[in-house]
């Protein structure tokens, strides 16, 4: 589908007279009358005072007239008809025009500002040339006669380093006399106008940005490096060729007809830049070649640069009479001598790749070519894991090749650094930028590399434009979708190792995506991988988990832990293992938050098995009632002893071998989360305290210790040993459930105390007995009972 290029659109805008001054009389000719201009545009008015002062200065003995566009009456500038030119009857008249006030201002800025990135001038001018060729190509579809001159569509850059001149010639659409005035004397709603606005804003904000580097300023960037610019142009719409001439610092320009036969061109535009003294270095052929390669490598028309070449050849050299041999017959044998010389000549050299790989038909590009392009463009030494080449059409059109690198950059910080320069944006094959901050890809996908070439964005797209543009938002959506398709492709590859490699390098990014990109949960979830209670050596996908679910299983279970070993051994697993329910092991600190953000997968909720109210689908209400009757009061007794340390004490349905476990509140933090939060908390710990008080102490009524405690409550509820056993049970459950004890030394003390009680002279008593027997005494010697040690003020 053919589309009008952005520049044609900007020309339309320019001609529409939007934001122009109001004109109060009908206009019949472009030059016929003077007119009072009223500036009702506040933005323009800041420049207009200069305009009026210039227009009334009248340096020349010239007749003045105000120019309006014949198409729409738009104000274009003022024209002086030079009397000097008119005096020579053989020369066509040179017409002198004032720049529109904004152009003067812009040129003034360009000339008087010290911009470091001057070299962008070439990119801008080549891009104008490429646009002119695009426009011609587009129009020739309906008007084939436009191509009747049979000249190739190309761009040629010639340099004269001695004189400091650069000539850029294209065979594009050219400009008529009127277009020269419209286009090179005025600024409409183009990027250049935005540039001026941004410049004003940045000045207001006190910033001194290198705005030309960011924006480009179209044609006027020629004055970054030139004192004088001559534009000689021939439009197929006109029989005549016109020459526009402007100087840096001047407030006016001239237009005349080209009459020298040797300067006539069949079609297109020739720009001659007379470089400033300090910028003559740009006229070195090698430098120009380098700039073309750097900035305009993928312009879709051939760009030739004028280069010196050489070839070697053998030439005969004058023979030395001393070396002439006599063959004995008296005849002298002439010995021919040659030498190798380098013959130098100048010729055009193709300097860009005319067909960027992304413009080619994907069916015709080999994997090797994609990989080569990737390595060359991104300075990579490994082939990518995957690539995707696509075109989008419709609302927004762009072409792109995306890649998933084989490895993550070294230094983990880089992984979620959006400023990775991984996406190179082109607008109509002109390289625009690779310096993005999440505009084209969310930061969690910033590892994806690639090129994006849009026809819909303005060439001088700035970060601000990118952030605000609806086009960019649509592009971003599509790019993200394509990136996911590409990753899904790796995950479905027969070679499981590929995805393992991907996961190892970029798994964290996808988990971050679960947290940051709700919109794409459906795309991210199938790509996640975890170890599980039934697969702790090979990670599984959520699909594999769901496939492996038992018929009576409703939810997807998980436990978050700091290591596989502790996940494997957690008491929370016990009943699930008995029931053969698989449990995901979330051992990466980010896992738990990621899963909590997902909430469910394929309509199955994620359930943390370390939290209150775990329902394993096997409730037996009668049995529960029975147990409650038997242990209910014991629970209350334990709660009384533990006080505020726990929210409640309940009978567990998740234990089989452990006596008890400490469960997090339904909406509280798991042990894992508590540990992570603790590591990050500085200062106020009130939320930690609160979460702690929400824990639930669950007891296993089948366990002997609990049965003993139940008996203790019924017989001697005040027994010190029983109460100490409750304390120790709590502390032990704290550790085995993954929490950190608040006072490890005190816990140590309690353990020693219990050990003392348990052993109570088990090995020493027989020794004492035998000693006594040896001494012949019949007295029984009491084994020394270890007294409880007081630790931290508590026995
Ligand atoms: N080589 C060329 N051939 C034909 N027309 C040209 C050429 N160079 C410039 N023009 C005309 O001059 C106009 C102004 O060019 P300029 O580069 O200043 O602005 P732009 O390309 O429209 O917008 P931007 O400010 O975004 O670059 C162009 O829109 C185009 O119509």
Automatic annotation (TrEMBL):
The keyword Metal-binding does not apply. Pfam families: HATPase_c_3 (PF13589), HSP90 (PF00183). Residues 7-16 have a biased composition (Low complexity). This is Heat shock protein 90-6, mitochondrial-like isoform X1. GO terms for biological process: cellular response to heat; protein folding; protein stabilization. SUPFAM superfamilies: ATPase domain of HSP90 chaperone/DNA topoisomerase II/histidine kinase, HSP90 C-terminal domain, Ribosomal protein S5 domain 2-like. One of its GO terms (cellular component) is cytosol. The keyword Chaperone applies. It comes from Nelumbo nucifera (Sacred lotus). PANTHER family: HEAT SHOCK PROTEIN 90 FAMILY MEMBER. ATP binds at residues 124, 128, 170, 175, 190-191, 214-219, 269, 463. The lineage of its organism: Eukaryota, Viridiplantae, Streptophyta, Embryophyta, Tracheophyta. PROSITE patterns: HSP90. Belongs to the heat shock protein 90 family. It comes from the Eukaryota. GO terms for molecular function: ATP binding; ATP hydrolysis activity; ATP-dependent protein folding chaperone; unfolded protein binding. The gene is LOC104606598. Residues 1-24, 315-334, 775-795 are annotated as: Disordered.
